[in-house]
Q: What sequence folds into this?
């Protein structure tokens, strides 16, 4: 059973094509992240699901019904905005009741019970009578979340809800979102530009680039096995090094070779090397020149020149190499991702 | 305040502000002083203290009639300008960008001197309806008050979260419900401030009222103007003082409810 | 109903009122100014420029307005700067000091000046007591009286226009200028004044326009002999009942103000774009 099906969605603003044929199906209870750089069309896609934007072509189905031409107020959805969009003239409880009141859900008593339950879920029962402006950013964010889940929508839409919080609060909220989702299991579409958020929260990550889906896969898979150069560079800042593949060996531009896992076809390719997967060796391996060392507290980041290519490598704080000196580095063959081209 | 301002400049600034305050407020203080002076000639500083001129003013049918006309007019102008200006502000706030042609048109009565529009309105009204009437004044004052309501309301709407209406849509609010539960509550402080300004403008307006006046249509400022042209006396000072006090009261309410500075620099 | 249609529904009543109550009257005035007993004519304009009387009124209107605008700018800029950079409490009092007179009827304020400027009034008698002026010294019914009264009436417009701009200026710009070697006054001249220019321009246009078109204060303080254009219009409408000539004079005023406004709108647009 799928709660949300998008079929061949395109969207143009004037001559600018923002979405170029998006197909996406989200199963009931699934938590899916739309991940991408700003301008990739992810927010437009979310707004199309909400009904706040129309489509140029394509079809939106929620719980099996075609809602492409329905306005947002007639769709069974809830959306949480980046700015939270709390109604400033209403108390916290009135804000949370708002969707129930607008959709005429149940009697006054039933609404009270639902509001109370939603506020309990986000642990804000004690602030029910406050005005939104009296709350901290984190608390406002919880109110917005309570307001989004109170009507038990078919699809919950989250538009970068954590981006206005500071780092510590954001991590707390991530944990809380996971817990709440596990408990009430709403079908959720989550827009973010933060790869950590996408990886840690979702059942499935949909990576978007220039109005199209680049890759969609569970978090571990998309991180460990990015399908394209864009995916590997967007997720986890991989270094891309061109090479020639022949007989289980990759030859770099300067003639150095390194072993790779079997199965890659011969020819030109790009090696995607994650910065945390590169090891410093005392001898052997590949020669690279140290350009800069950056102290990060628990670790060092080294910027190296490898066969004319600038790469970034993370090393333990104990590794001390001076800029200008030569480093020996190695990468386990099964950690090298080989991309065509 | 940027630190490290030379000391002599700080003193100069203080003296300057003091002089400016005296310059701005002296005419009002003088009028108030004359109104309680025992002398039957207009004189300042006041001699003695009396409320006689207030009794005089309140017993004068001419002043009382003018006062009721001005009050009726101001109340009706407040209602009409708030309704039309408020609606226009909501419409304008939904436009793509501010400062468009429609907004410029709505605010043009602020830029164009009212004397030009006053003479045109007098001529048009005479051609169509003959003698000027209360409705002519109501129309004229509404036209000049609308831009103030629009400006205060737009200023408030510009500060709101632009996603509120969309959020309300995703929560199932239909068009009318969005207007009632989201937009109007957002407009409230701006509308209130605009209403205060509209009342004050209509109650104090002299130019349009002078052009459109006739013997049965004399507002309070026109009545005062006539007296000043003829011969100023302490009674007109008493009436003027009452007008100043009404303005002060309006300003106090505005400041208490909404804060003056907010609308002063918009 | 589409969102566009709804937006127009909000705008329409106000637009309709403005067209009927604002545009139609102005059009009517324009038509009357070129209407004579036998159809269209420019006689009214010819009459205005025929002898030196009306041109001298026009000239007085222009130079008094320019003088008033200059004085308002000279007082208004430092006042607005002090307001913008003082704490909220002080600023509130200064705003009250500016707005209270603004919101008081112009008739009442002019009355105050009549009392202050009269032969036996506070200013004249003080000057006499110090022996600075002769016994026959007279302030009422002079151009000085008009300028004094008008500056007080119009200064709030200048101050508020400037305040709106200066209050949005980042004070760190001034601090940066100071660290780069500007003295306080140099900072004013090189940083604040250029950035406040749009407010100064808007305020100046507003003050000049209002000044050129006002007649209540000039009529009461200047007396019948020192006439300005707006006063002449009022007299022609209410006393001599020569409406066509009044309309022609209003058109001359209108045209002068339009000439002033058009370059301003250009400048404003350039500043935005």
A:
């Amino acid at each position: 059973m799928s709660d949300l099906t998008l079929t061949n969605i395109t969207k143009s603003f004037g001559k600018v094509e923002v979405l170029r044929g998006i197909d996406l199906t989200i199963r009931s209870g699934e938590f899916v992240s739309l991940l991408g750089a700003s301008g990739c069309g992810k927010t437009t896609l979310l707004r199309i699901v909400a009904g706040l934007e129309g489509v140029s072509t394509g079809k939106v189905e929620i719980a099996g019904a075609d809602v492409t031409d329905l306005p947002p107020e007639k769709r069974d959805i809830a959306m949480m905005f980046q700015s939270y969009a709390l109604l400033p003239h209403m108390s916290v409880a009135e804000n949370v009741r708002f969707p129930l009141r607008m959709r005429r859900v149940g009697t006054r008593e039933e609404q009270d019970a639902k509001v109370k339950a939603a506020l309990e879920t986000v642990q804000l029962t004690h602030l029910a009578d406050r005005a939104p402006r009296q709350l901290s950013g984190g608390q406002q964010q919880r109110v917005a979340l309570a307001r989004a889940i109170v009507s038990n929508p078919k699809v919950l839409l989250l538009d970068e809800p954590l981006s206005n919080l500071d780092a510590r609060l954001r991590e707390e909220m991530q944990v809380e979102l996971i817990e709440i989702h596990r408990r009430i299991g709403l079908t959720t579409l989550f827009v973010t530009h933060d790869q950590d958020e996408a990886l840690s929260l979702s059942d499935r990550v949909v990576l978007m680039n220039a109005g199209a889906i680049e890759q969609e896969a569970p978090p571990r898979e998309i991180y460990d096995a990015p399908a394209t150069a864009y995916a590997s560079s967007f997720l986890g800042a991989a270094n891309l090094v061109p090479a020639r593949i022949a007989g289980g060996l990759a030859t770099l531009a300067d003639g150095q070779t390194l072993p790779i896992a079997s199965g890659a076809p011969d020819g030109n390719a790009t090696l995607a090397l994650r910065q945390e997967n590169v090891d410093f060796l005392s001898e052997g391996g590949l020669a690279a020149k140290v350009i800069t060392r950056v102290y990060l507290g628990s670790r060092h980041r080294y910027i190296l020149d490898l066969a004319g290519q600038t790469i970034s490598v993370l090393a333990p704080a104990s590794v001390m190499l001076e800029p200008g000196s030569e480093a020996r580095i190695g990468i386990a063959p099964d950690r090298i991702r080989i991309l065509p081209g | 305040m940027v630190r490290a301002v030379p000391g002599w400049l700080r003193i100069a600034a203080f003296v300057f502000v003091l002089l400016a305050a005296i310059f701005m407020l002296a005419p009002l203080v003088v009028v108030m002083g004359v109104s309680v002076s025992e002398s039957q000639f207009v004189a300042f500083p006041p001699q003695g203290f009396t409320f006689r001129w207030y009794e005089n003013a309140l017993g004068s049918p001419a002043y009382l009639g003018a006062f009721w006309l001005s009050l009726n007019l101001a109340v009706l102008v407040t209602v009409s300008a708030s309704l039309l200006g408020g609606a226009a502000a909501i419409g304008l706030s939904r436009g793509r960008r501010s400062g468009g042609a429609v907004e410029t048109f709505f605010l043009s009565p602020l830029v164009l001197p009212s004397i030009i529009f006053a003479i045109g309105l007098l001529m048009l009204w005479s051609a169509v309806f003959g003698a000027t009437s209360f409705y002519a004044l109501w129309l004229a004052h509404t036209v000049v008050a609308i831009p103030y309501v629009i400006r205060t309301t737009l200023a408030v709407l510009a500060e709101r979260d632009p996603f509120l209406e969309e959020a309300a849509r995703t929560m199932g609010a239909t068009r009318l419900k969005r207007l009632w539960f989201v937009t109007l509550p957002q407009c409230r402080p701006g509308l209130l401030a605009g209403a205060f300004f509209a009342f004050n403008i209509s109650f104090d307006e002299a130019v349009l009222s002078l052009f459109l006046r006739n013997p049965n249509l004399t507002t309070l400022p026109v009545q005062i103007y006539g007296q000043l042209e003829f011969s100023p006396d302490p009674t007109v000072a008493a009436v003027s003082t009452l007008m100043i006090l009404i303005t002060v009261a309006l300003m106090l309410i505005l400041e208490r409810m909404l804060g003056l500075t907010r609308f002063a620099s918009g | 109903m589409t969102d566009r249609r709804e937006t127009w529904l909000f705008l329409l009543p106000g637009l309709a009122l403005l067209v009927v109550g604002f545009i139609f009257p102005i059009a009517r005035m324009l038509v009357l100014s070129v209407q004579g007993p036998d159809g269209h004519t420019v006689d009214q304009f010819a009459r205005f420029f025929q002898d030196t009387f009306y041109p001298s009124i026009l000239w007085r209107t222009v130079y008094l307005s320019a003088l008033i605008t200059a004085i308002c700018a000279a007082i208004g800029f430092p006042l607005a700067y002090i307001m913008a950079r003082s704490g909220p409490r002080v600023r509130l009092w200064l705003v009250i000091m500016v707005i209270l007179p603004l919101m008081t009827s112009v008739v009442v304020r002019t009355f105050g000046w009549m009392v202050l400027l009269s032969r036996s009034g506070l200013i004249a008698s003080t000057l006499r007591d110090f022996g600075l002026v002769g016994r026959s010294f007279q302030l009422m019914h002079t151009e000085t009286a008009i300028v004094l009264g008008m500056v007080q009436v119009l200064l709030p417009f200048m101050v508020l226009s400037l305040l709106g701009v200066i209050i949005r200026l980042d004070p760190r710009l001034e601090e940066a200028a100071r660290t780069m070697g500007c003295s306080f006054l140099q900072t004013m001249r090189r940083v604040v004044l250029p950035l406040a220019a749009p407010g100064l321009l808007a305020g100046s246009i507003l003050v000049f326009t209002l000044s050129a078109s006002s007649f209540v204060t000039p009529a009461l303080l200047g007396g019948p002999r020192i006439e300005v254009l707006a006063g002449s219009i009022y007299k022609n409408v209410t006393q001599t009942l020569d409406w066509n000539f009044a309309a022609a004079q209003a058109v001359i005023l209108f045209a002068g103000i339009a000439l002033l406004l058009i370059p301003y709108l250009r400048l404003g647009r350039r500043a935005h774009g």
User: Anything to note?
Assistant: The two ends of chain A are 39 Å apart (CA to CA). Chain A has a mean pLDDT of 89.
